[in-house]
C-alpha cells in the first residue's frame, strides 16, 4: 500500500545551526594549516626522537612555516570565539554539550564499545558530548601553551604556569597530539556513519534517515 | 621537399637565465610538500605570488601586535650561575669552521645615522662605559633554548653617549660575516638589551660573536647579531639577513 509519504516531501529537521557548520569547516582549514606548519616548526628542533615527514608539513622551510603558524592562529582563535559566543547565545553549548553526566558517558561508552550505540541525527550521545567537550578543553590548552611559547617574556607568568619554556613546548605538543587523536576518531566515526556528513554541510537531514534509533 | 623554416625562439643570455630560474622554482615548488599543494600554493615567502603577499602582510600585522604587547618594564627572567647551559650551543647561518676571524688590534665600531657623535669606538672605550651583566635564556626560532651569561654596555647607555635620536624608529647592526639585523627603538632602550663584550665572564670567544654582539633577551636568538662592525640609527626600515627572507621582523618573546 502506498503511504502518504510519497505524496509529501519528507520532513526535514535542522541538525546543525549555521554558526556550527561555518566554524566547523573554517576549523578544518585552520587546523590543517596549524598542524602542518606546527610539524614543520617541530622538525627544526625535535622534542622527541622523530620528525614529521616533509610532505605533511607546510611552508617548505622554517621561516615560512612560522609565518603560516602565526598567521593562521588568528583565524583559529577568531573562529573559536565565534563558535563559543554563538554557542552561548543560542544555547548549543548548554543544551548539546554541557548536559552530560558521568553515568551517561559510562552507559553510552559501554554501548558504543559493544557496537550497540545507534546514531540519532541531531542528537549527541553522551560519548560525543564528552569528546566534544574534551577537544574544546584541549583546544584551550593548546592556545594557552602556544601563547606561553610565543611570549615567554611578556607572558612569563603563563609560561611559568606550564613549568617554563621547554615544558610549555611539550604541553603544546601533547595537546596537539590529543586533538590529532580526536580528529582520527572523528573521521572514523564519519566513515562508520556517513549520513552524519551531509547535515554538517546543509544543516538539515530528512526525518527518514533519523529513523533507525536503537539507543535506549 | 622544402626545408621547414626554423621557428625556434632564440633567447638572450639573460632571458635564458630567467627561464632556468623559473623552471628551478617551479620544480622546487612542485616538490615542496603535500601541505603546499593542499593549500593550493607552495607559499614559502619567496615566490611573490598572492599567497606570499598575504603571508607577508600577516607578518607585518604580527609586528604591530608584538610592538603593542611589548612592555618596556617587563624584564626577562634571570637565572642562577648553576643553571647556565654547558656547553652552550653554537648557531649561525654557516658551520662552525666558517666563523669569521677578526683582527682585534684594529677593530673599530662604526656609528652612523641619526646620531650626534659619529666617531668610531674602540673596544677599550666601550669597556670604559658603565657595564651590566645578565644570566638569561636565549630562545631560538627553531625551538631550542639555552641559558648563558652575557656582560657589556646597555644599548641605551651607548645610544645616549653617541647622542642618538631616541625618537627614531630603528637601530640597525652590520656584522663581519655579512649578517645584519635591526630592532625597534623601544626594545633598544629596554634595560636588558646590551652590547655584549663578555660571555661567561670572559671576552666573547669567536664562536659566540667576538668582539661585540647584541644580547636582547626579549627577542628570538637570530635578533642577537654577532661580530658587530657598525651600528646605525634610522627611520628607514633596515630589515635583516633572515628577516628579508621571511622570518618575522619583530620576533619578540
Salient structural properties:
heterodimer; A: 216 residues; two-stranded antiparallel ribbon; 3% strand; B: 253 residues; alpha+beta; 4-stranded mixed beta sheet; 6 helices; 24% helix
One letter per element, helices H and strands E, the order of chain A comes to EHHHHHHHHE
Helical content of chain B (DSSP H or I, runs of 4+) = 10-25%
> How confident is the prediction overall: mean pLDDT of chain A?
87
Largest inter-chain interface?
A: A-B, 37 and 42 residues
Q: Which consecutive residue ranges of chain B, at least 5 long each, have pLDDT under 50? A: 1-6, 23-38
Average of the residue pLDDT scores of chain B: 87
**What does the main sheet of chain A amount to?**
2 strands, antiparallel
Work out the radius of gyration of chain A.
Answer: 20 Å
Counting copies of identical and different chains, the oligomeric state is heterodimer
Question: What best-fitting shape of chain B do the alpha-carbon axes yield?
Answer: globular
Shape of chain A: globular
Overall strand count of chain B = 9
Given as residue ranges, the uncertain stretches of chain A (5+ residues, pLDDT < 50) are 1-5, 210-216
Please tally the β strands of chain A and state the result: 2
Report the C-alpha radius of gyration of chain B, rounded: 22 Å
General description of the model:
The complex is a heterodimer of chains A (216) and B (253). Chain A has 216 residues and is an all-alpha fold. Chain A has helices spanning 18-44, 62-89, 92-97, 102-113, 126-150, 156-161, 165-192, 197-202; strands at 12-14, 204-206. In chain A, strands 1-2 form a two-stranded antiparallel sheet. In chain A, helix 1 (18-44) packs antiparallel against helix 2. With 253 residues, chain B is α+β, with helices and mostly antiparallel strands. In chain B, strand 4 and strand 5 (180-184) form a beta hairpin. The longest helix of chain B is centred in the N-terminal third of the chain and has 20 residues, at 50-69. Chain B starts with 12 loop residues before the first helix and ends in a 19-residue tail after the last strand. The A-B interface holds A 32-33, 36-37, 40-42, 44-45, 47, 54-64, 66-68, 70-71, 74, 150-154, 156, 160, 165-166, 169 and B 28, 32-36, 38-39, 42-46, 54-56, 58-59, 62, 69-71, 74, 76-77, 137, 139-145, 217-218, 242, 245-248, 252-253.
Amino acid at each position: 500500500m502506498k503511504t502518504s509519504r510519497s505524496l509529501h516531501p519528507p520532513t526535514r529537521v535542522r541538525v546543525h545551526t549555521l554558526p556550527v557548520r561555518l566554524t566547523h569547516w573554517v576549523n578544518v582549514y585552520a587546523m590543517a594549516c596549524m598542524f602542518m606548519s606546527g610539524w614543520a616548526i617541530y622538525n627544526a628542533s625535535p622534542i622527541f626522537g622523530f620528525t614529521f615527514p616533509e610532505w605533511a608539513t607546510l611552508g617548505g622551510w622554517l621561516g615560512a612555516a612560522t609565518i603560516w603558524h602565526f598567521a593562521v592562529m588568528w583565524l583559529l582563535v577568531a573562529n573559536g570565539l565565534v563558535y563559543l559566543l554563538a554557542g552561548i547565545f543560542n544555547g548549543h553549548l548548554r543544551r548539546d554539550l554541557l548536559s552530560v553526566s558521568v553515568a551517561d558517558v559510562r552507559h553510552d561508552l559501554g554501548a558504543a564499545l559493544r557496537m550497540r550505540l545507534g546514531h540519532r541525527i541531531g542528537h549527541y550521545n553522551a560519548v560525543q558530548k564528552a569528546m566534544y567537550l574534551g577537544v574544546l578543553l584541549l583546544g584551550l590548552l593548546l592556545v594557552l601553551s602556544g601563547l606561553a611559547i610565543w611570549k615567554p617574556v611578556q607572558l612569563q607568568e603563563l609560561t611559568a604556569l606550564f613549568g617554563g619554556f621547554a615544558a610549555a613546548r611539550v604541553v603544546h605538543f601533547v595537546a596537539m597530539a590529543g586533538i590529532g587523536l580526536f580528529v582520527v576518531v572523528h573521521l572514523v566515526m564519519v566513515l562508520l556513519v556517513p549520513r552524519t556528513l551531509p547535515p554538517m554541510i546543509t544543516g538539515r537531514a530528512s526525518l527518514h534517515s533519523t529513523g533507525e534509533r536503537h539507543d535506549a | 621537399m622544402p626545408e621547414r623554416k626554423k621557428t625556434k625562439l632564440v633567447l638572450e643570455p639573460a632571458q635564458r637565465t630567467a627561464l632556468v630560474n623559473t623552471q628551478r622554482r617551479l620544480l622546487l615548488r612542485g616538490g615542496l610538500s603535500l601541505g603546499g599543494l593542499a593549500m593550493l600554493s607552495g607559499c614559502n615567502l619567496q615566490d611573490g605570488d598572492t599567497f606570499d603577499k598575504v603571508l607577508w602582510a600577516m607578518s607585518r600585522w604580527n609586528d604591530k601586535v608584538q610592538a603593542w604587547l611589548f612592555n618596556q618594564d617587563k624584564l626577562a627572567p634571570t637565572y642562577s650561575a648553576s643553571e647556565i647551559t654547558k656547553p652552550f650551543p653554537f648557531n649561525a647561518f654557516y658551520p662552525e669552521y666558517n666563523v669569521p676571524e677578526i683582527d682585534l688590534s684594529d677593530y673599530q665600531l662604526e656609528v652612523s645615522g641619526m646620531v650626534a657623535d659619529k666617531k668610531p669606538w674602540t673596544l677599550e672605550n666601550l669597556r670604559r662605559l658603565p657595564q651590566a651583566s645578565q644570566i638569561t635564556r636565549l630562545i631560538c626560532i627553531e625551538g631550542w633554548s639555552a641559558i648563558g651569561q652575557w656582560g657589556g654596555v646597555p644599548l641605551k647607555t651607548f645610544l645616549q653617549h653617541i647622542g642618538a635620536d631616541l625618537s627614531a624608529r630603528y637601530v640597525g647592526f652590520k656584522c663581519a660575516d655579512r649578517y645584519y639585523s635591526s630592532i625597534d627603538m623601544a626594545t633598544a632602550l629596554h634595560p636588558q638589551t646590551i652590547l655584549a663584550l663578555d660571555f661567561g665572564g670572559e671576552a666573547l670567544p669567536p664562536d659566540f660573536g667576538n668582539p661585540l654582539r647584541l644580547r636582547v633577551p626579549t627577542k628570538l636568538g637570530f635578533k642577537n647579531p654577532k661580530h658587530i662592525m657598525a651600528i646605525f640609527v634610522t627611520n628607514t626600515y633596515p630589515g635583516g639577513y633572515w628577516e628579508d627572507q621571511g622570518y618575522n621582523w619583530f620576533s619578540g618573546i
